[in-house]
Automatic annotation (TrEMBL), chain A:
Keywords: Membrane, Transmembrane, Transmembrane helix. InterPro entries: DUF5317. It comes from the Bacteria. The chain crosses the membrane at residues 6-26, 33-50, 62-78, 85-104, 160-177. The lineage of its organism: Bacteria, Bacillati, Bacillota, Bacilli, Bacillales. This is DUF5317 domain-containing protein. The keyword Aminoacyl-tRNA synthetase does not apply. The keyword Metal-binding does not apply.
């Protein structure tokens, strides 16, 4: 997962709205069921931590991630009318589809992975260490939704990403821009409306 | 089955052609993916995504070019570059995926327009592909020696585009084919050449640097689009300044004339009709004198903004014609619909609050309007303006705040116009005493003008009826204000005073001397056909014909507008009442033409506001009445 869209969205948002208004805007973030997102994140970390210790988690890791994905998708779906969140939904869905089709893991292409550290490629090849990813081959389904896009210089980061990741980042960028682009008086109206 | 039947009935033959084009295009598109489908190498998928993203971005950053409504999108460069480097299937797939995303993004545009657009692009790509193949062009490389293959492909791409777009306008909007074709070629040729050459640049860049080429190209294209947008805005601003009236935000006189010429041409060539309205603010000079010109300008701006608001959603063209005059061109409206529309605007203007309008006679902002529908007899715009002007002046003479259609009432009582003005000055006194009587006199006058035409009266009789109608209640000047405006039922003594107004009126006319010929109308307009009226109880033909006519008009208006001492009737109810009183109160011979006249007005929806308002009030009052009755019972 890359977070460049979020970063870029925040930068552009702060430039456009100014420091104070931007912070106010973020403070006024309204998402239905928004409390669930940090919990999902927490569960993910927990899983990552536990999979080393308890074999049960390591074995069914993929399925746990699927459940998290479904909950996340549901949350995005009920918020899809906010600009950007619908796009994020599509991006997550694309990633979800390819992982579903491949037993809960994300396929990575060799060409894309070649920009990464060779050690990482070895780990992918052996197929055991990195639980969320695996190297794609001829039998991989929906391979074109997998991590096939290599990011390398001049881009300031080396990583292999999927088209779903790109879409998610575009959505995050739009979401943050519109969130921070609102005038503060809109918030007065909004808060009055909700109260 | 039922749905299909309806569809067949729904579409015209030409629209079926569009459907046929779409179907053929779809089959052509699908034939490229039959039977082996679409597949790519893993690394080509990356470039595929980049191309799709590029097509979407370029479609979004469309160039807007002057004049209005012209725009050019650079997404063609992407499709062409894809075609030249990766082949036709790749290019079609880029189109397909980007089109789906654009459709989702622009749900407001009708689906079939998106669809036709998609078919057009597919056909263009396929056309270019065939041309390229025919010239043995090498896919995936750029060889300078093969430049003719590229050029021919670009020509094919352009031609297919022009033909299909022209077909679209020809089949769906009935434009003529050849002129439309010529127009498109003329307008888009140069922009197009630029875009097509750009595609070659993109081919070279992608071949050389892959991904990075696309990115660089997108940045340049977006920046260019931004620059063009600035240019367009600048053009727009200057254009606005040249065509618009700064005070009101409406179009100006010269632009109106230009457009009027265009509409007249459209009428001549394609038979597209339109109506033209001339609008003049009532008593604007008075307002100006009272509050000064800056405030008067504000009033103009205010009325202008209302007119603009009403016209814009319908696509009507509103302009400031001069001083306090406005003009509206209403395409596709016949005169009756135009009347309804202008009347609607008039009511909105009447009801709009504005500072200081209480000095105006109507107590609100008002205008008089004349409407003319374009017809074969009208050969020039000055004639349109002149005739609608005439109708507008009839509105003025009918008491202002009226809309008149030219042709229904062209007979302006011009010969005695100054007499009308003179008498109008007399009844103006009622403005301070009893506004109802003032307005009533004007309405009765307006009905009388119409009836004089319908009854085909001679010149002398016309004048008598019209002037008599205007002045008939002048005797009420002598009736105490309390009696005139009393809301409750009048007692016997008060009735006697009211009844005396006919005699007062007669004395008034005799004293001034000039209008003694109107005396019979003023004195006898309350006589009844059966002899039950006042002041003399004359019967049948003992009452002069014009007085009998005036009695009918006067009674009708009294019935249908609010009087303190009686219940208001709707037009239909009033007509029933008139039928009932035919032969008793009214002369049967005269009442029938009047009833027919009113029926026609009801048909046209042309009912005076006061009558409608009075009805509304009446209904409310009765509702209240019923409420109190039920609650007490």
């Amino acid at each position: 997962m890359v977070y460049d869209g979020i970063l870029l969205g925040l930068i552009v948002g702060f430039i456009r709205a100014g420091w104070k208004n931007g912070l106010i805007a973020i403070g006024n973030l309204r998402i239905k069921g928004g409390w669930a997102f940090p919990i999902l994140l927490l569960v993910q970390f927990l899983l990552f931590y536990l999979q080393g210790d308890i074999p049960f988690f390591a074995q069914f890791n993929g399925y746990f991630y699927m459940v998290i994905y479904v909950v996340g998708l549901a949350l995005l779906w009920i918020n899809r009318h906010q600009k950007g969140l619908g796009i994020i939904f599509v991006g997550v869905l694309l990633n979800f589809l390819v992982m579903m089709a491949n037993g809960g893991r994300m396929p990575v292409s060799l060409e894309a992975a070649s920009v990464l550290d060779p050690i990482y490629i070895e780990m992918l090849r052996s197929g055991d260490a990195v639980s969320k990813h695996f190297l794609m081959d001829e039998s991989t389904r929906l391979y074109f939704l997998g991590d096939i896009i290599p990011l390398s210089p001049p881009y300031p980061r080396t990583q292999a990403i999927s088209i779903g990741d790109v879409v998610i980042n575009v959505g995050a960028f739009f979401f943050l821009c519109q969130l921070m682009g609102k005038k503060s008086k809109d918030y007065v109206a909004l808060s009055q409306e909700s109260s | 089955m039922g749905g299909q039947q309806r569809l067949i009935g729904l579409l015209k033959p030409k629209e079926w052609l569009v459907v046929a084009i779409c179907l053929m295009g779809t089959l052509l598109f699908l034939s490229f993916f039959w039977p082996e489908g679409f597949s790519l190498d893993r690394k080509d998928w990356v470039i595929f995504y980049a191309m799709v993203a590029g097509a979407i971005v370029l479609e979004y950053f469309m160039y807007k070019l002057p004049p209005e409504g012209n725009h050019q999108s650079m997404d063609s460069t992407i499709f062409l570059a894809s075609l030249f480097i990766y082949g036709v299937k790749f290019s079609l797939m880029v189109l397909f995926v980007s089109a789906i995303i654009i459709v989702i993004n622009r749900r407001t545009v009708a689906w079939w327009k998106h669809y036709y657009n998609f078919i057009t692009y597919s056909a263009m790509i396929i056309g270019a592909h065939w041309a390229f193949q025919w010239m043995d062009g090498t896919t995936g490389d750029f060889i300078v020696g093969e430049i003719y293959a590229f050029v021919l492909a670009l020509i094919a791409y352009f031609s297919v585009n022009i033909i299909l777009v022209a077909a679209y306008f020809f089949l769906l909007y009935r434009n003529q084919l050849i002129p439309v074709l010529a127009l498109f070629v003329r307008e888009s040729l140069f922009a197009y050449i630029g875009i097509l050459l750009f595609s070659l640049v993109l081919v070279i860049m992608v071949l050389k640097t892959g991904f990075f080429g696309i990115l660089l190209f997108l940045i340049i294209a977006v920046l260019l689009s931004h620059v063009f947008k600035q240019l367009f805005l600048m053009y727009h601003e200057i254009n606005d300044k040249a065509n618009k009236d700064q005070r009101t935000g409406l179009f100006n006189h010269s632009y109106l004339e230009e457009k009027l010429d265009e509409y007249i041409k459209l009428y001549r060539e394609d038979g597209k009709t339109f109506s033209f309205a001339m609008i003049d603010l009532d008593d604007f000079k008075k307002y100006n004198d009272m509050y000064g010109h800056p405030q008067g300008d504000k009033l103009l701006g205010f009325v202008g903004s209302i007119i603009k608001e009403e016209c814009e959603p319908h696509g009507y063209l509103a302009a400031r014609y001069g001083g306090e005059e406005f003009a509206i061109i209403m395409p596709e409206l016949d005169k009756n619909k135009a009347r309804a529309f202008v009347n609607h605007v008039r009511k909105r203007v009447n009801n709009a609050p504005f500072d200081g309008v209480d000095v105006l006679p109507h107590g609100c902002v008002s205008f008089s309007a004349g409407i003319i529908e374009m017809s074969a007899d009208t050969y020039e715009k000055s004639q349109l303006v002149g005739l609608s002007d005439r109708a507008m002046y009839i509105s003025k003479s009918k008491g202002k705040n009226v809309v008149t259609v030219y042709g229904e009432q062209t007979y302006l009582p011009q010969q005695f116009e100054h007499e009308i003005n003179e008498l109008e000055q007399q009844i103006r006194i009622f403005l301070s005493k009893d506004v109802y009587t003032f307005k009533h006199s004007k309405r009765v006058f307006s009905y009388a003008v119409d009836m004089a035409g319908i009854l085909e009266l001679g010149e002398e009789e016309r004048r008598t009826l019209i002037l008599g109608a205007l002045i008939h209640d002048i005797g009420k000047l002598e009736v105490p204000r309390e009696v005139l405006t009393k809301r409750s039922k009048l007692d016997k003594d008060e009735w006697e005073i009211i009844k005396k107004h006919v005699t007062f009126g007669k004395e008034f006319l005799l004293a001034t001397g000039k209008y003694t010929d109107l005396v019979p109308l003023v004195e006898l307009h309350h006589e009844r056909y059966d002899g039950g009226g006042y002041p003399h109880g004359l019967k049948g033909t003992e009452i002069p014909k014009l007085a009998r006519m005036l009695c009918i008009i006067d009674s009708f208006d009294a019935m249908t507008t609010e009087r303190p001492y009686q219940r208001t009737k709707s037009f239909a109810e009033a007509l029933d009442e008139m039928h009932r009183c035919t032969g008793t109160q009214f002369d049967p011979e005269l009442v029938l033409p009047f009833i027919r006249y009113i029926e026609r007005r009801i048909e046209l929806g042309d009912i005076p506001d006061e009558a409608l308002e009075a009805m509304e009030q009446q209904r409310k009052q009765e509702a209240r009445h019923d409420d109190s009755r039920t609650s007490s019972g």
